[in-house]
Design a protein that fits this description.
By secondary structure, the protein is of the alpha+beta class. The chain has a single domain, classed as Glutaredoxin (3-Layer(aba) Sandwich), CATH 3.40.30.10. The chain is 40% helix and 25% strand. Strands 2-1-3-4 form a four-stranded mixed β-sheet, sandwiched between helices. Strand 3 and strand 4 form a beta hairpin. It is globular.
């Protein structure tokens, strides 16, 4: 499974969410595509007040601000 992680440097919420997400790379073969919103103006406009944001590969939001562990694990077991 691939997810998109939208963040900005120096954001403690981003660091926290990423730390909770990282173990899934090993345990579930998760691929995390990192997007620093401050380097892409369109992403900054879209996500500026929502970061961190986690989406699936199709761009559907999984969670923002805080990691939704239950929702994420449900997505891992039933990605439809």
């Amino acid at each position: 499974m691939t997810v998109n992680f939208y963040y900005r440097n120096g954001c403690h919420l981003c660091e926290d969410l990423y730390a909770e997400l990282l173990p899934y790379e090993t345990s579930h073969g998760l691929t995390i595509i990192m997007h620093n919103i401050d380097k892409e103006p369109a992403l900054k406009e879209k996500y500026n007040q929502l970061i961190p944001v986690l989406t699936d590969a199709g761009g559907n939001e999984i969670c923002h601000y805080f990691f939704d562990k239950a929702g994420f694990e449900k997505l891992l077991t039933d990605p439809s």
